[in-house]
Amino acid sequence: QVQLVESGGGVVQPGRSLRLSCAASGFNFNSYHMHWVRQAPGKGLEWVAVIWDDESYEFYADSVKGRFTISRDNSKNTMFLQMNSLRPEDTALYYCARDWGYCSGDPCYFFDFWGHGTLVTVSS
Amino acid sequence: EIVMTQSPATLSVSPGERATLSCRASASVNNKLAWYHQKPGQAPRLLIYAASSRATGLPARFSGSGSGTEFTLTISSLQSEDFAVYYCQQYNNWPWTFGQGTKVEIK
User: Fold this and answer.
1) CB within 10 Å: which end of chain B, N or C, has fewer?
2) How far is it, in rounded angstroms, from Cα B96 to Cα B84?
3) Residue B65 to residues B9, B11, B75, B80: CA-CA distances in angstroms?
4) Are B104 and B19 spatial neighbours (Cβ–Cβ below 8 Å)?
5) CA nearest B34 in A: which residue?
6) Residues on chain A touching B87 (C-beta within 8 angstroms)
7) pLDDT digit string, tens, across residues A30-50
């Protein structure tokens, strides 16, 4: 069955960096676009970033553009989120999510499987 | 950015009763609307996509409807496992945005 397992979260000071990982299993990882979605404590969901199945494209929410970098290693069925210049407002549970598939040649941009998340806390 | 507004914030329903959740978009999203639910401590689960298509394995008591700016998720007869927070999400316009959620609780 499809499994997505996030790791790498923790407590970090403002301005520092953190790298999250998402280990995928149970499906052909290199055939799916992948996303990061976050949820601040007690708040709703916010899409963060997407990377194409073949790494050809990546897009970011304005709130993280220039600070976060999404990447993947298809040989290891793993996706990453490098987070630099972290801010208190980046505090959230970060989910790895699989895109549903292809819609008119692009990702569909909705999510059919999610991990359980890894918590990032940015605080001095 | 398209703002998604869900109502009500909390819905109190007895098991076996019908629940109707609403989601409004600040501009047309055509039919590119998904619904998820999330139980405490669990990952969100996809329920509905393309406004009315049920995800694989979803019971028939869940149905979605609407297009443009107004959408509805109906649960025809609530079961104990359906008590959760429900989110709508538009995927017609970047950035892809979610509603703030409707909590369905036991009455």
Assistant:
1) C
2) 22
3) 19, 19, 12, 23
4) yes
5) A110
6) 44-45
7) 999 999 999 999 888 999 999
